[in-house]
Amino acid sequence: MRRPRQGSLLLLALVTSAGISTLLSVGLLRTMNDTAIARRAATQQRALALAEAGLDAGVQWLLAEDERPVCSDEFAVEGQQCASLTSAFTPELGGIIQTFPGSGSFTVTVDPDDLNEAEPAQAAFTITASGTTTGIAVTRTAAMTIKRESFSKYLMFWNKYKKGQAINMTGAEVLRGPVHVNDNLYIMGSPTFLGPVSYTGAIVCTSAPCNPTYAELPQKLEKPIPMPEAKKRFDEDLVPAAKASGIVIGDDAVVRFEQHPIDLLQPDGPQRYELVVTGKGVDEVKLKGNKLAPTPNAADPSILEVRYTIAGKLVILGKEELTVEDSILHGQVTLASQEDMTIQGHIIYACNPDSVNADGTPVTDEDRQNNPACDNGESRDLLGLVSRKDIIVDTSDETKFPDRVHLPDPARPPIGIMIQGSVMALRTFTVKGAYKKDDSDERARIGYKGRLHLFGGLIQDERGLVGWNIDAKTGAGDGFDKDYVYDARLLRLAPPSFPNTGRYDFVAWAEQRP
Q1: Shortest CA distance to 69 belongs to which of 105, 116, 129, 106?
Q2: Any residues with CB less than 8 A from the CB of 169 and at least 6 apart, and which?
């Protein structure tokens, strides 16, 4: 009887042994597969890391080339700027390491945007990098597009304070766009920052309570965004653009933008908007180097004027002082002056992308849909005002700038002046009377003028006063209350040849699959 039992035990042992062997084989196979998968995944990640190292090398090369890369491509003319090319090229990366023993290597190409030659101030580049691993050869490719950062992207930017006098961000202010200062940011009360905030000094509360609200944590930069770069860009981008394909005014002049008088009588006809130049410089107006002849004004023949119909993008440069009168602009224009620029009235878009008109009435989507100056309800109008010196709001005409009171709503005084556009003063933006010629602290008594409603952005080297000694409850004081509203289109658009910061904005990143 024992032998059958011994046979059963032997059979059971054999079956168990076979099962264990099978399990061990399966486990070993799984371990080997997991190891292989992990190795392949690590190799894939290493290839992508090499590609990203290549992208970083391409960006560093662009930055080292001072934003005007000279091409090293064998097909390029010696010294040719890459912005004038339309095809990709391989940059000479110099001392940047491209091969990593035991890991792999990367290659880099740079593809300038086809529109760079026409608009170098806003040049964009697509950097493509491929990383290939050693051993098991795996290649992954990534591409990144970057674009020169325009000063026009800022709602407020200033380098320092005029005469070192701090100007506070106050509790009444709600700032919906990027704000940067190469100095301290002074706070009084509870201003609200709904866009990114950066500074190089410190955030200083000048009085209690001090409770600013930030949508994003403010960023302290180690290095300032160099405002002197703007003068370089003014000279290297804006001036050549005006001379080559725009308008140059050779002497002091008064300018305005307006709809053609005949078109006003024919609302269903063509929508032509013009630049009108009068004053001393009327005999010194050139388009692409060719003089434009002045003609008598239709209403007053004693006044000579130059009229030019705006079509497409236009850069206008005044070699001397420019005075800008009440204007309605249709098109994309940068008006620049190598001397001071004075503003004497509203400057507004023909298609208003803002929420309010200059008279305080609201603007609706229906208004834009019914406006022939709009493109399917969208505004394509864009203005840059740039002075190599000061931009000054002149309120001396009391018919245009009467004294205002805080009625009917104390929190929202009436609009005293509306400026739509990105405004850049390479010295100071201020109101006439805020500062004396002798730099004394005495300020003129010009009366309270209501709100300075700026729809766009304000960039200046020295932040200047627009209002002083203003009592928020009574309206007593002089100048304007600030009412700066961000034009969100400026995050992706810039007026023609508007000065850039010398930095780059990130536009897009994508991996390119085979």
Answers
A1: 116
A2: 175, 185, 186, 187, 188, 191, 212
Q: How many helices (H) and strands (E) in the chain?
A: 5, 34
Q: What are the structure tokens assigned to 14, written together?
A: 């054999």
Query: Element (H or E) spanning 129, and its range?
Result: strand 124-133
Here the tokens at position 288 are 């692409």
Cβ pair 255, 284 in contact under 8 A: no
Full domain range(s) for residue 429: 236-497
Q: Please indicate whether residue 216 or residue 62 has the higher confidence score (pLDDT).
A: 216
The gap from C-alpha 436 to its chain's centroid, in whole angstroms, comes to 32
Query: What is the total count of domains within the chain?
Result: 3
Beta carbons of 431 and 480 less than 8 angstroms apart:
yes
CB 350 within 8 A of CB 299: no
Cβ proximity of 131 and 104 under 8 Å:
yes
Give the strand order in the sheet containing 185-189: 169-170, 185-189, 203-210
Task: Assess contact for 476 and 410: CB atoms under 8 A.
Answer: no
Nearest to 452 by CA among 484, 421, 406, 425: 484
- Residue 512 falls inside a structural domain: no
Residues 367 and 453 in one domain: yes
Domain edge (last residue) among 110, 133, 148: 148
Residues 405 and 438 in one domain: yes
Spacing of C-alpha 377 from chain mean position: 23
> pLDDT for 284-325, tens place per residue?
999 999 999 999 998 899 999 999 999 889 999 999 999 999
Do residues 170 and 30 share a domain?
A: no
DSSP state letters, 59-71: HHHHHHTTTSPBP
Look-up of token digits 């209403």: 299
Within this chain, do residues 104 and 176 fall inside the same structural domain, yes or no?
no
250 in the same domain as 218: no
Predicted confidence (pLDDT) per residue in 456-466, tens digit: 999 999 999 99
How is residue 310 written in tokens? 């705006």
